[in-house]
Design a protein that fits this description.
Length: 192
């Protein structure tokens, strides 16, 4: 079965959602190939990684408002090097899902056509944003290596953000802290 699996690629380098993909098909703007880049960390070549990011990021308006993947958009925009878009997509892809006096994170944004009845709290959106904040924006790749080796790319944060700092994370039974400063070559995972 493994030998029969393959990843489709378009002639322009974009990784499509499936064979014979068309952006104008129903749910065509769903950024599932970007989920292969983060959080799944597919080792795409630079050309296909950038082409796929550019292709789906330019169509974010056709997807955001839907559940689940929208919370990853800030990380994808940061991976593409667009700090302004990362900030805009933090607002559009997560903050705009916030509703009511208890700050429920809704499944769909209330302005989305499929949102007949606002429903929340929706943990997939909350979990997606936590993954974006703790792994995607800092550029961490969790592996069997030492936690200090998990940072694997430069830190790119949304416009106006200077850092993400977490005072205490439990990593393999040890208290650690995370420091991801904008523009640094790598985030740091240090003993707490």
């Amino acid at each position: 079965m493994l030998d029969a699996l393959y990843l489709p690629r378009r002639s322009d380098g974009v990784i499509p959602a499936h064979e014979d993909f068309r952006i104008d098909e129903d749910k065509g703007a769903t950024p599932s190939p970007l989920a292969g880049l983060f959080p799944m960390d597919y080792p795409a070549g630079e050309r296909e990684r950038q082409a796929t990011l550019d292709f789906f990021l330019s169509r974010w308006r056709d997807y955001v408002g839907s559940p689940m993947l929208a919370a990853f958009y800030p990380a994808w925009a940061a991976m593409a090097g667009d700090r302004k878009l990362a900030l805009d997509l933090f607002e559009e892809g997560y903050a705009a899902y916030d509703a009511g006096r208890f700050h429920q994170c809704l499944e769909y944004r209330v302005d989305h056509p499929d949102s007949a009845v606002p429903a929340g709290p929706f943990l997939a959106n909350i979990g997606g944003m936590l993954m974006t904040m703790l792994l995607g924006l800092p550029g961490l790749r969790i592996s069997g290596d030492s936690p200090e080796a998990w940072p694997h790319r430069p830190v790119t944060l949304p416009s106006g953000w200077s850092s993400i700092a977490v005072d205490r994370l439990w990593v393999r039974g040890r208290p650690m802290r995370l420091i991801a400063e904008q523009g640094k070559d790598r985030a740091q995972i240090l003993p707490a």
